[in-house]
Amino acid sequence: DAVHDGVTGYLHRPGNSEELEAAMESLSANYSLREQLGKQAHERATKEFAAHTLTAALLAFYAQHLFFEG
Question: What is the pLDDT of residues 15-70, one digit of tens each?
């Protein structure tokens, strides 16, 4: 998942409006929590989803799983 619950944001079960409401209330009431989650999300996105990281992962996947007959 792109979001690590409690680290880079909050997750809720699909259709569970009570969990969503609780997460939104928690975030709206706590500036430092919003700031902390945002910083951690940015760090993770920069590290794990950078173009060079994704390209290297895709190339490794292709090298391992695709076989060309010639």
Answer: 999 999 999 999 999 999 999 999 999 999 998 889 998 899 899 899 888 866 55
Cβ within 8 Å of residue 20, ≥6 positions away: 12
d(CA 44, CA 37): 10
CA-CA distances (angstroms) from residue 70 to 38, 59, 64, 66, 67? 49, 20, 17, 13, 10
Q: Determine if the pTM surpasses 0.90.
A: no
Tell me how far CA of residue 62 lies from CA of 1, 19, 29, 47, 65, in angstroms.
22, 39, 46, 21, 5
